[in-house]
Design a protein that fits this description.
Structural class: alpha+beta
Order of helices and strands: EHEEHEHHHEHEEHEEEEEHEEHHEHEE
CATH topology of the largest domain: D-amino Acid Aminotransferase, Chain A, domain 1
Strand content: 25-35%
Radius of gyration: 20 Å
CATH architecture of the largest domain: 2-Layer Sandwich
Helix content: 25-40%
Number of domains: 3
Shape: globular
CATH class of the largest domain: Alpha Beta
Bound molecules: adenosine-5'-triphosphate, magnesium ion
Length: 348
């Protein structure tokens, strides 16, 4: 079997390694940390910084293709790796999703609805952006934000100075505030030969900026459900994408609005592990390995709940619950806000 290189050894890299292993592949994980969660299950681990050219080369030479579990890989590392092995999904997908401004410009160019947006580098830009977009609005760093970090909400123009200070000089984007009824996401996969398969949309609830639960089926009309899947396929095709992607959407009376895309397996797709014959991790591995996609039809209703920080105290109780499938990441130290695991509860 082939060996799949995975950049990033967090829980997503760990679950990708498990899925690869089930199909007879080996994985080699590259991570800058000392004890990455994926290290327990990968066949091989390199812990070195992304600046270590020798380590990157050695890693690439042991694998057949390279994928990743997070989008903030330094360009310099990709420059080195792509000369040695194919990187899937491609760099274009990374470039588009690494920067919220490029992402929104790409989505609107494809005819998809996004929040109104404007680039903000300084106080003058922000004043102009507020005049154009209005308030309420959200100022977000263009890069490196996750779990709601790097964001500041503006109720009125009076909040401008504070919001700008919150960005600490990082290039930012002002987004108009969307008055949505629900948040959903679609996890879709595109194979090397261009087949597309999307999982049933999930409904997401956040707590303190972090995903709390994903419920399938989502409360949607059949046309909304169809729309969500079709626009995801459109994004995958437009990027000539290979692998699994998460597309976060706002449901509004005026239609679906794309919040952001993630060029990787996605937390809101973890329900697929117990709701489908083939889950998001296996679909991703199949795609990057050049296999046909598997059957991702939902066979059960599921509620996925993230286990964050002290939620780990609930594990002994959850372990006794009927219909509950636990997935723990083997992280040694519990910290507030840290994703420690999740539980998929089968509802029917
Ligand atoms: P993730 O952990 O999903 O990568 P993130 O840090 O990239 O999150 P976003 O998804 O952009 O952040 O925003 C986090 C949450 O804030 C969204 O799920 C949504 O609830 C809310 N939000 C973000 N942008 C808007 C908006 N323009 N209008 C209304 N709510 C928003
Ligand atoms: Mg994000
Ligand atoms: Mg998000």
């Amino acid at each position: 079997g082939a060996t799949i290189g995975i950049l990033g050894g967090g829980q997503l890299g760990r679950m990708l390694s498990v899925a690869a292993s089930r199909l007879g592949f080996k994985t080699h994980v590259f991570d800058p940390g000392t004890n990455p969660p994926a290290g327990d299950v990968a066949h091989r681990v390199t812990t070195a910084p992304y600046e270590d050219e020798t380590a990157l080369r050695a890693f690439a030479e042991t694998v057949d293709m390279i994928t990743y579990e997070f989008e903030n890989i330094p360009t310099s590392a990709l420059d080195i790796l792509e000369k040695i092995r194919p990187i899937r999904p491609s760099r274009r997908a990374l470039a588009v999703s690494q920067d919220r401004l490029i992402e929104k410009a790409f989505l609107s160019e494809k005819g998809l609805q996004t929040a109104s947006f404007a680039a903000v580098d300084d106080a003058e830009d922000l004043a102009e952006a507020i005049a154009e977009i209005g308030t309420p609005a959200i100022l977000k760093t263009r890069r490196f934000g996750y779990d709601g970090k790097g964001q500041s909400r503006l109720q009125s123009a009076d909040d401008a100075a504070q919001a700008l200070a919150d960005m600490a000089g990082a290039p930012a984007i002002l987004e108009g505030f969307i008055d949505f009824s629900r948040e959903i996401s679609v996890i879709g996969t595109r194979s090397l030969s261009g087949e597309v398969a999307c999982f049933d949309p999930g409904e997401n609830v956040h707590r303190d900026g972090i995903l709390h639960t994903t419920t399938v089926p989502a409360t949607l009309t059949s046309s909304q459900r169809m729309d969500a899947v079709l626009l995801t396929a459109k994004i995958l095709n437009a990027l000539d994408y290979v692998g699994t992607m998460g597309v976060e959407l706002f449901v509004t009376p005026g239609g679906l609005i794309v919040n952001e895309i993630a060029p990787r397996v996605h937390n809101s797709g973890h329900w697929t592990q117990n709701g489908c014959a083939v889950d998001q991790f296996e679909q991703h591995i199949r795609a990057v390995a050049g296999w046909p996609l598997g059957d991702g039809k939902r066979h059960s209703d599921v509620v996925m709940e993230n286990l964050i920080g002290d939620d780990m105290n609930k594990v002994p109780e959850i372990a006794r619950e009927p219909g509950a499938a636990l997935h723990l990441y083997g992280k040694a130290d519990v910290k507030p806000g840290r994703k420690m695991g999740h539980v998929n509860r089968i509802k029917s």
